[in-house]
Design brief:
The protein has 280 residues and is α/β, with parallel strands linked by helices. Helix content is 40%, strand content 25%. The protein contains 8 helices and 10 strands. α1 runs parallel beside α4, α2 runs antiparallel to α3 (42-61) and α6 (163-178) runs parallel beside α8 (218-232). The two termini are 14 Å apart.
Length: 280
């Protein structure tokens, strides 16, 4: 049994909130640079070059990549041989978010009630997903999620008879309906299977997979490649102003499901696909 003080969790999450909002991960940075070379539209290239300049300024001057610094989504993969001491784990996680957004001068975007709309003033609470795994380590993924793209996300409760073609059409429909509102070039996270809520979680987690890595499942990897090509063929382009680079990646996660259902979730993310990962 390994013991971890919860204040270690707080410290790391604080740093990760600041890091994720100022610097893109290596895979996203590479994808953005490649997009400039691949874009066929002069206006599209100009927009992508402006986004590159924005990233450079954000890193050099330590200001957020985007003014929407997101709601903190945190994945906790906890080894079953870990014991946390020193207080409540969830309180420690939220304290890390509170410190990160306050000390990092990040915009506070969370309201305490979805209808009464009073700002919590420290960007808490976070949305926390826990998974118990073998071992004695803790993997933390902090993924601040802006709501311009989040609002364009969809869940489709398809019938099994809709099959693979129905799934593909649902994903393309979500992208076409999103248009410029998801701040393209986007990353498209997809969850297929499970239940209503499970497919949405699969889609959210798919956004944290490096954009240069395809699924380990052969047919899913082929779907990812095919859909990326079709999405980039829509002509939506950077900023929604036309071009050949509408998406940087399509990441699909699948899970077993019920004989009577075919749930599909599409979680849109803009070019600021933020995630910071650490293992304790």
């Amino acid at each position: 049994m390994r013991t971890i003080q919860v204040n270690e969790v707080t410290r790391n999450i604080k740093e990760m909130c600041i890091e994720a909002n100022h610097f893109l991960s290596g895979d996203m940075e590479k994808a953005m640079k490649n997009a400039v070379q691949c874009e066929k539209s002069p206006l599209g290239r100009q927009i992508l070059e402006q986004l590159q300049e924005n990233l450079r300024i954000a890193g050099n001057d330590m200001i957020p990549i985007c003014q929407d610094t997101g709601m903190a989504v945190i994945f906790m993969e906890i080894g079953q041989d870990v014991h946390f001491t020193g207080g409540s784990l969830e309180d420690a996680i939220n304290e890390g978010v509170r410190q990160g957004y306050t000390e990092g001068y990040l915009r506070k975007s969370v309201v305490a009630d979805p209808l009464l709309r009073e700002n919590t003033k420290d960007n808490t609470p976070a949305v926390v997903h826990y998974e118990i795994v073998p071992g004695d380590q803790v993997k933390i993924t902090v993924a601040p999620k802006g709501f311009g793209s989040e609002n364009m996300s969809r869940v489709f409760m398809l019938k099994p008879a809709d099959g693979m073609e129905g799934v593909k059409e649902a994903i393309l429909t979500a992208v076409r309906d999103a248009g410029p509102n998801a701040c393209p070039p986007m990353v498209v996270g997809v969850g297929i299977g499970g239940t209503f809520e499970k497919c949405a979680l699969l889609a959210k987690k798919a956004l944290t997979r490096p954009v240069d890595q395809h699924s380990d499942i052969a047919y899913v990897a082929e779907m990812e490649k095919e859909l990326l090509e079709k999405i980039n063929g829509t002509g939506i382009g950077p900023g929604g102003l036309g071009g050949s680079v509408t998406a940087l990646a399509v990441n699909i996660n699948v899970y077993p499901t019920h004989i009577a259902g075919l749930p599909v979730a599409v979680n849109m993310c803009c070019h600021v696909n933020r995630h910071s990962v650490r293992t304790l």
